[in-house]
Amino acid sequence: MSWLGAFFLLVSFACRGFAVERFPLGNLFEFSVAGAFFAMATFAVAGLRRDLRWLGVFVTAFVVLLLMVASTAWYVEADEVVPSLKSYWLPIHVTVATLSVGIFVVGAIISALYLMSDRGVGSERFWRKLPPAATLEKLSYSLHIIGFPLWTFTLIAGAIWAREAWGAYWNWDPKEVWTFVIWTVYAAYLHARATKNTSRRTANWIAVAGFVCIVINYTVVNFYFIGQHSYAQ
What we know:
The protein is an all-alpha fold. Helix content is 74%, strand content 0%. The longest helix has 34 residues, at 133-166. The relative contact order is 0.11.
């Protein structure tokens, strides 16, 4: 079912592209559809090597919620993008950013489950259906270790694109700043995860904080901060 869901999301993404006659990653609505696809695809691919049926309900719930918000609050009619987005960097930079966010979504869900299982939140019957806490923690790490290099590429590619579009690699744009904040938080997570003196619980709290920063970046920053990325609303 996860593959079927990913397929329909990909079809929806492609249909949007045909409707707007461009690469459909020019605003928050389109980014949300792509992010939902990558989250579902990440879950499906990860499930090829292990039984992750227990995770499906959580990933699906997130994807459905995201699509509901995107379709009601963030939907915009098909239209042209601003001139600065008419670049070969759009499908490169934004696609990799969306892919990394999709991976971070699944990683954050697993980190949250690990933190709750570590504290015994909820019924014992529920947790018996899930893998042990140590397995959850390792699975979350295996996803974040993939997502972080992709986000690093996003940051670097964005700087190169900014140089071509606006004449400088760094402009202190709110979106640029928060992209770097997200990178820093996930770097701190990986450092904490590799440090023996830091507990796995602390490291996973940092991972969850990284995802909270992503949510802030694509909601609060998009709507309440004026900058060179304001067209992404």
